[in-house]
Amino acid sequence: TKVQAEEVVDGLFEAIVSTMKKGGEVSIAGFGIFSVKARAARMGRNPATGEQIQIAAKTVVKFRLAKAAKDAIL
Hints:
By secondary structure, this protein is an alpha+beta fold. It is elongated, with a radius of gyration of 18 Å.
């Protein structure tokens, strides 16, 4: 049913988020790999003024598409 499907999808997303919060990697066969990557602080430029600005370090989510999914799409 729609309710059961929603529960499964919500559970999957909760599992992905909780694993990534711990710094882990989640691999879904035939779809792709979700991982967490730390970005270092760096200098950037404000495109409007050309002024240099400091960009803070942060953690970002990375996704790599599986070869099977890539072949199906492309």
